[in-house]
Amino acid sequence: xxxxxxxxxxxxxxxxxxxxxxxxxxxxxxxxxxxxxxxxxxxxxxxxxxxxxxxxxxxxxxxxxxxxxxxxxxxxxxxxxxxxxxxxxxxxxxxxxxxxxxxxxxxxxxxxxxxxxxxxxxxxxxxxxxxxxxxxxxxxxxxxxxxxxxxxxxxxxxxxxxxxxxxxxxxxxxxxxxxxxxxxxxxxxxxxxxxxxxxxxxxxxxxxxxxxxxxxxxxxxxxxxxxxxxxxxxxxxxxxxxxxxxxxxxxxxxxxxxxxxxxxxxxxxxxxxxxxxxxxxxxxxxxxxxxxxxxxxxxxxxxxxxxxxxxxxxxxxxxxxxxxxxxxxxxxxxxxxxxxxxxxxxxxxxxxxxxxxxxxxxxxxxxxxxxxxxxxxxxxxxxxxxxxxxxxxxxxx
Length: 397
Prior knowledge:
The protein is of the alpha+beta class. Helices cover 31% and strands 16% of the residues. The strands form 3 sheets. Strands 3, 4, 5, 6, 7, 8 and 9 form a 7-stranded antiparallel sheet that branches. Strands 10-11-12-13-14 form a 5-stranded antiparallel sheet. The protein has a two-stranded antiparallel ribbon with strand order 1-2. The chain starts with 47 loop residues before the first helix and ends in an 8-residue tail after the last helix.
């Protein structure tokens, strides 16, 4: 368990040794990335036992080429987890990105190559940790390796629910106490502490993938959803969990790209809708197989119609331009969960007054949503990854 600093108490910092004895010339250190003099100590006290409690396996690394002695000692005696907070760690000799910058690991889509990952770098002179987004210039990540491990341990606690409940305000205050130089508007850790907590809401539902309750949605969409009356649901909707969801929760009408059918008119099947359109438009495609089992829930802006399979609860997109049915979401609960995560993330940025760091958001939201909704995230370039990760669609907080 991690102990937070009491309010107003400064972080524990060991004193720098006194000046050299007379007659001894101090060793000149090369300039390191970042402002200020090189710190000879680490800011956060972390033991190997603590690290093993947080991460399980922790790997020691003997890297004699690192000039910063406290960092070299920490890596050799305490070590690093193999993966934590969405970051993989694999430092090794010969992995220097440039002179004095050693590759510690990274995060992002490793399968996509360097253009889809962020590299975590250690300045072996100062001991500071930086990131390089898709090969760009180094940006500050954290002050040293011990604080890096402490922060990763906190993320593991809040994202898995194994540790005590901590508010984002508590965690932000901890960062302010131990790393006041970190910019909250370009911070991996501020984004992580605010967003990873949302993962704990991904609880399996009763017959649907995720448990969604009116109280949960009230936090974000108080006036934008409501159960549908029984008479608007067609006989084709025989999947009981989906039917119950529509009666108790309804359709969330809060995003411009989805025009939900919340007018209390009976929901048509896709066969009925296409027959109606065919009477008006000559170029309407033929109805797909089983169209009489597909219930139309919404119009998807520029992309077709949102339908639910009344037998299974699977959501699909009817692309009338290509006359094709494309999987959209696992079910109604995962669609609602996607919108809830995005809405809560936006609330967090407004309440805590910080800016989401884009590469951290991509890492976290993918880790939260992909396991909950494998249908939506099966294709890395599919509809929902494009919508949730693309800033142009208004879903990035």
